[in-house]
Amino acid sequence: MTKFRNVKFSTSDGVARFVLSRPPLNVLNISMLSELNRALESLADAPDIKVLVFSSDQKAFSAGVDIGDHTEEKVFTMLDEFHGVFRTLLELSIPTIAAVNGMALGGGCELASFCDFVIAAENAVFGQPEIKIGAFPPLAATYFPRLMGARLTAELLLLGDNLDARRAQQYGLVNKVVPEADLAKEVESLVKKLCAVSGSVLRVATRALRIGISASLQDTLEKIESVYFDDLMALEDAREGIQAFMERRKPEWKNR
Length: 256
Hints:
Layout: E1 7-12, E2 15-20, H1 30-41, E3 51-56, H2 75-91, E4 96-100, E5 103-105, H3 107-114, E6 117-121, E7 125-127, H4 138-148, H5 150-159, E8 163-164, H6 165-171, E9 176-178, H7 183-195, H8 199-231, H9 236-246
Parallel strand pairs: 2-3, 3-4, 4-6, 5-7, 6-9
Antiparallel strand pairs: 1-2, 7-8
Helix pairs in contact: 1-2, 2-8, 4-5, 4-8
């Protein structure tokens, strides 16, 4: 297996594990996303793998995508790498589990929520705060309406407020909430259940689920990416929001 700098990737006993490991908050930069993509792509010819587990060894699952990669020079590469993770997950007929501790914000929320199973510690916090810095999350705009409905998605994306673990469960982002000390045990219990069934049947069933998800997601995501690149990135306020965040000040919106 290839060793990575920001992701601890391993396979054993039918389980592929992706441990996000970029201190202190697992902010997803282009390099880390590239590592995730390479690790996922290596599983294309791994018929023995029954389940993928995403977790963190930091105090957050992930605080989101690096704001420094939202600049005009990097945003195309960043979104290509980020959305590449989800496109590969759609193609892999393997169930996925997210073990969420601490913050799962922005891209971290999207990554966790895209998994088939989300087990959250009681200290977990979910949210899409992009609107507060003059942006929006294309993947969430594409996928969340079918996950939780249009109205709850509007609350999450247009207000940018965070949800605690219990509220996230009510919204449909989380399967189960457990005490932080029990998170690993609960995830391993789920892994054991998945590994106990036929691997070939599990893949066929997962492929069926992926067909349901991907039927219009690919086309919709491409259209929303165009809105992000062509419309959002042309706005003065989009540039101001990112600049203000980098300078640790309140943005001065000009509504243009």
